Amino acid sequence: MTDQSYDEWVAALGTDDAFYLECPEGHGSLPPRRTCPHCGATELSETPLPEAGTVETYTEVHVAGPDFAGQTPYLTAIASFGAVRLTGVLRDASEGDVETGLSVSAGTAENPDTGDAVVVFRPR
Amino acid sequence: MNDVRIAGVGLTPFGRQPERTGRDLFAEAALAAREDAGVAREAFEGLHYGNFMGALAERQGHQGPLMAEAAGLDCPATRHESACASAGMAVRHAVQAIRAGEHDVLLAGGMERMTNLPTTEVTESLAIAADELFEVRAGMTFPGAYALMARAYFEEYGGSREDLAHIAVKNHANAVPNEFAQYRREVTVEEAMDSPPVATPLHLFDACPITDGASALVLVSDDYAEAHGLDAPVRVAGSGQGGDKMALQDREAFSRTPAATAAAEAAYDDAGIGPGDVDVAEVHDCFTIAEVLALESLGLFDHGEGISAAREGRTTRDGDLPVNLSGGLKAKGHPVGATGGAQIVEMAKLLRGDHVNSDALSDPRIGVTHNAGGTVASAVVHVLEVAE
To answer: Which residues form the ChsH2 C-terminal OB-fold domain (chain A) (predicted)?
Structure first.
């Protein structure tokens, strides 16, 4: 297994084809996976990711690793999108505007320090 | 089953020692433990050694045999990696091997060399204990991960930055007399509150430092201790390990650490005790919020009550349950792969009565150590007991 399926998932996140993996029990997870992390099922199907997510927790990072060193301070959050949670950088918001429960959309943007695609949330 | 005794303990001072190699650090701790135990070199049957980021920090993998050699031993050696719980896991494996009757005399411990790297590289090296795809690439740092847990805790149970500051104040106060501690100075709540943010709501004084250091223990079977007349009054009465999902986003909750709960329950069951029997604890306070999560996971405080334990004086040196009398990771320092072993070294000395802070305890019988890996995707808990 390579990171290819992760890269494909990130690429899809920025389009109308955003998805997560769903097992027969309804548990959600994200690729790369061969098994459901919650029940071990091996039948995983691509299911559309809900358009709206909810911020569950967040932080403003002031001391970063090299891949984000040029962006401090920046916001990182975990948001729930139905059966799955995503971790991403929260853009178009300042810490004072954010609170848990904030409705966000998920997409991608370029990490200016590396040129890689990064998962981003934006307030809806 | 063979009972396991702690026959000898050794530490290096914890702190900034960028000029010292890993092999030099571990040799110092190991030789101190060997001298404390008074066990012949030829008696050692193996080394269980913890290290996390040596391949990045020193470009040195395969550290097991290297460190056996540094310790002056000629025996099989294994490196254990479980992020910040590496040394705790190394000790656990040594305990299991002695209990199983496979060995009678083992060296266990760990080492980490960190300050020879710039801070950004240390931050990146530590981040590999998180999920590379779903956390690190999303800008999560290690302080950031604990910050996400701290905010979730505040949302669920209440609590404030000031409550966390009291934990830093407590652990710094405990470190002052500890010659092995990195920061031997008291801090105030105001200083902690005014320190710069690292990852909100956590500020600099909520975080443990970057540290070099090593720890070592000589573990022997009860039979060996008796046959050789060793002075080994502390036994490892219980050992437990727990696990959880790697990424925070896949956990059931962010305000609890069930891997530590599972480890504690297993260790208590193994030792035949409950949390009410614990006299003293050394817990993994890599961030102040981590001490709160540890106290609650160990069952020492109910969920939602650990946050105020230091402020209320319950976990201070004169409280009913002193926690981190060593200074903890917060003030004593956190050389990642050495920490779990160092906690057991400190606890053994507290129970033996020859720790610099032993006078805070009145006839202690049972101590618990809690060593967490990553954001507690792995955890190991040990129960130490004064032997009858």
So the answer is: 47-106
